[in-house]
Amino acid sequence: MTNNNRSPITEAQFDSVAMKTQPGQLKQRHREYGIEFSIWINHTLVMSSDVDSEGVRKYWCYLS
Description:
The protein has one domain (about 5-60). The chain contains one helix and five strands. The chain has one helix spanning about 10-20, and strands at about 5-10, 25-30, 35-40, 45-50, 55-60. It starts with 6 loop residues before the first strand and ends with a strand.
């Protein structure tokens, strides 16, 4: 996912929201370096988690 309107967050922040999602809000897809997770609310991307080329998982928030 490429988006310049994102801010880094912690794994705990991502997990706390992911645990409260409704069916269909937490999505995953296989990418080049691992599984990417995204959280969608009302058809809007709010958080994501991806793995970079060095195998490090990063967490992002898209809300301002």
